[in-house]
Amino acid sequence: MSLHLHDVTLTYPDGDTRLTALDQVTLTVPKGSLTAVVGPSGSGKSSLLAVAATLITPDSGTVTIDGTTTGGMTRGELTTLRRNKIGIVFQQPNLLPSLTAAEQLQVMAQIDGRSPAKARGRAMQLLDSVGLAAQAVRRPHQLSGGQRQRINIARALMNDPTVLLVDEPTSALDHDRGATIIDLITRLTHQQATATVLVTHDRTHLTAADQITEVHDGRLTMPALTQGARA
């Protein structure tokens, strides 16, 4: 299993008390599968994603990424783990306006110490996988919203992560473009063999998810296999 959360509880200060964001959450996401996490605003979806990304340390419970349990790791060790093992697709692409599509990806690999030639090759491979090889030299203002989101996804895959965490990727897109993005994430999950968690409030495009789980008041329901799930 590439991602496993076991009995995770997360609370935040709320005046003289504490607000429970996640309440004894357990979730397993196998390699090469997509788990959709749905629920209303404020239910705990964003907190779940932040804990899985090791951006927030829970009060209790364990987070295991590709066989490594994160409890007790230093800040530097967690940074290295995120860089090598976790890809994050943020809700907004936040592309650097001065960089071309290829350069948006290349900078990720260069931070990790790869040679420019290897970074360029990997960037072009991923741009081709998301259908944007022909747009490699374009800058963000020359691309559509859907194209920018595809670059956002390709960038998250640049360092070959084992875990892919996706936050509301269709919130700024219309229905058809949203469907295209979900199809792309599903295909790349299988091709790249990532353990993917897709957080969304929109259930419309989730028929291909391997499992769907709901968050209500910080608690997960039992994951339910979808019709598209594989044995």
Structure description:
- By secondary structure, the protein is an alpha/beta fold.
- Helices cover 32% and strands 28% of the residues.
- Strands 3, 6, 7, 8, 9, 10 and 11 form a seven-stranded mixed β-sheet that branches. Strands 2-1-4-5 form a four-stranded antiparallel β-sheet.
- A hairpin with a 2-residue loop joins strand 9 (211-216) and strand 10.
- The longest helix is centred in the C-terminal third of the chain and has 18 residues, at 175-192.
- The protein is globular and about 50 Å long.
- It starts with a strand and ends in a 6-residue tail after the last strand.
Question: Key features?
Answer:
231 residues, alpha/beta, Rossmann fold, 7-stranded mixed beta sheet, 4-stranded antiparallel beta sheet, globular, disordered C terminus, nucleotide-binding, ATP binding
